[in-house]
Specification:
Strand content: 15-25%
Number of domains: 3
CATH topology of the largest domain: FAD/NAD(P)-binding domain
CATH superfamily of the largest domain: FAD/NAD(P)-binding domain
Radius of gyration: 21 Å
Number of helices: 9
Strand order of the largest sheet: 8-2-1-12-19-18
Structural class: alpha+beta
């Protein structure tokens, strides 16, 4: 069936009735939620802006990462670990439906340290992270240089060691996005590109979304449009404080597989391509350009970590805008004013994909977020500071 035929069928269904559930946003966050919704209900749609949107999903480093997550919010540590544990089930389900694999590898992960100060700071950080009241405990270890050499031959002389966990991993974000959208085709999820939502109305317990191609109706909606959540959130009675944070990545040519375990800022993809990242720069919405000083800093650290990369050529570089909340943690909430309208905002679209598909989506269908999701509410931003 051609793409135009599929689109015609989707448009016909859209005009005829009301969807059981609808997601605004077709990136990794929205697509994972829509995939999960389709496992629970029959009629699901995804409204997407198209290629004019900020595509954080296509500028993703692809980590399925646990270490470092949850400082200041132990609930985020629990949520992250729950997703890590479900990732293999999600990957298997997608492959069974689509025949596509997503490059999932969960063999462990490393955070390299290159100075004595970095070493001590990393030990202190990880101890403080795990010792927080209510924080989930998992095995981690600070490797010295000899232990790291046994895991990663060829590290540079400046590398003193690394923090390690056995539960970290990676996936291929582009393969993941393709698998999710292929599953839409197989399972008759109506993916409607070039359907940016201008206004959201709530009439007779039905949500109506105004788009350039007409009104789309649904019983439940999830606003997962990344940086667009701030504007759309206001229309469902929620104030979503998000800001753009720029990340830059360098892509090196493919080589024979040398790096089996990913570092937090250096990994080798399943097909041999190298990725070097990832910067964290406060940015304006229009600031999606790459910058040589930042790229030089990233490249310098990568070469100091694995000197053989000096001889591997750069293929391209890119930047993307992460979606950051005021405190950096995810936001999940149902609108008190408009029951059935939910918002999902996070910058860890790969790591949390399994939790979004297999845990959050069923909550949306049920019509209520579980108690464990309470810390992710926007109510946390309204707590009055003590004096």
């Amino acid at each position: 069936m051609s793409a135009s035929t599929k689109q015609s069928i989707a448009n016909e269904r859209r005009h005829k009735g009301v969807y059981d559930a609808l997601v605004i946003g077709g990136g990794l966050v929205g697509s994972a939620i829509a995939f999960g919704l389709r496992q629970e209900v029959d009629h699901v749609a995804v409204l997407d802006e198209g290629d004019v949107a900020f595509r954080a999903s296509r500028g993703n480093f692809g980590l399925v990462w646990v270490q470092s997550k949850g400082m200041g919010m132990p609930a985020y540590g629990h949520w992250t670990v729950s997703s890590q544990r479900l990732w293999s089930a999600l990957a298997e389900k997608l492959e069974a439906i689509t025949g596509l694999e997503v490059g999932l590898e969960q063999k462990g992960g490393l955070h390299a340290v290159l100075t004595e100060h970095e070493y001590e700071s990393r030990v202190q950080f990880m101890n403080k992270l795990i010792e927080q009241p209510g924080m989930i405990h998992y095995q981690w270890k600070m490797l010295d240089r000899k232990e790291l050499l046994d895991m990663v031959p060829g590290i540079g002389p400046e590398v003193l060691g690394a923090s390690w966990t056995e539960i970290d991993g990676v996936a291929n974000p582009l393969k993941m996005l393709r698998a999710l959208h292929t599953a839409f085709d197989v399972q008759n999820v109506d993916y409607l590109p070039e359907h940016p939502v201008a206004d959201i109305h709530f009439k007779n317990n039905i949500f109506e979304m105004d788009t350039p191609h007409g009104v789309v109706r649904a019983k439940k909606i999830v606003v997962a449009s990344g940086l667009g959540n701030q504007v759309l959130g206001n229309q469902i009675g929620l104030s979503i404080p998000v800001r753009p944070q720029r990340g830059q990545i360098i892509v090196l040519e493919r080589t024979k597989r040398m790096l089996q375990l990913p570092f937090a800022t250096l990994r080798q993809m399943d097909e041999g391509t190298w990725l070097i990242g990832d910067s964290q720069e406060e940015a304006a919405y229009a600031d999606g350009e790459v910058g040589l000083p930042i790229l030089a800093t990233l490249a310098n650290r990568a070469v100091r970590t694995i000197p053989k990369l000096r001889d591997v050529r750069v293929v391209r570089s890119w930047s993307a805008l992460r979606v950051m909340s005021k405190d950096g943690f995810p936001i999940y909430e149902e609108s008190p004013r408009f029951p059935g309208a939910f918002v999902a905002t996070c910058h860890s679209g790969v790591t949390l994909a399994a939790a979004h598909a297999l845990r959050l989506a069923p909550m949306v269908v049920e019509g209520k977020l579980s108690e464990e999701m309470a810390p992710f509410s926007t109510r946390r931003f309204n707590v009055q500071a003590t004096t």
